[in-house]
Amino acid sequence: MLNTYVPVALPEGCWLLADDHLGQEGAFPMLKELAVHQGLEADLFELRKHETGKPYGVIGDRIIGVSISHCRSMLVCGLHASGEIGIDVEQDRRRVHPRLQERIRHPDEQSGLPDDLCCIRIWTIKEAALKYMGTGLRVAMNKIRLDMTDELQFQAIIGPDRIAITSFPFRGHWIAVAAN
């Protein structure tokens, strides 16, 4: 379980599992493993999608928050037994075009974030928020304003909505978890 490596506590009922050997097709078995870890009836676990494409789990009549993210070198699955979740993972040394930061930064966050906060980390934080909301990249990242609470905690502000996000390094990657 990735949770044992997370440097801060995640919300109650929220668990992550990472694997650097599986592709996207490995998500379902990982989600079932997370369900077992939560004491849920994993044999009854079904993976479904909302009309927006956001995944969620079903066990009987119970809805389970689910999020899946992968990059070339890692697959991360998140399960939240009692709420919503959105996750993103990217390699920490991934090269990005210098103008990407201009396109993803909200105009009001320039002074509120440290200058050394890397672009790929900001990307993962904002993408986790978008996955949490179920919109994905249909909402522009520069519509999300980030406030940094501490070194690993952020708050994404999108209109009236505020989403708590944990962002941390793990095996050469940045992982961001948005959960309630």
Going across the biggest sheet, name each strand in turn: 1-5-4-3-2
How many DSSP helices? 3
Count of the separate structural domains: 1
Coarse structural class = alpha+beta
Roughly how much helix do the residues carry, as a percent range?
10-25%
The CATH architecture name reads Alpha-Beta Complex
CATH class division: Alpha Beta
Gap from first CA to last CA:
20 Å
Poorly predicted spans: none
Instruction: Indicate the mean pLDDT.
Output: 89
Give the oligomeric state: single chain
Fraction of residues in β-strands:
35-45%
Radius of gyration: 16 Å
CATH topology: Ribosomal Protein L22, Chain A
- The counted number of beta strands is 10
Element order, helices and strands? EHEEEEEHHEEEE
Write the CATH homologous superfamily: 4'-phosphopantetheinyl transferase domain
What composes the largest sheet?
A: 5 strands, antiparallel
Shape: globular
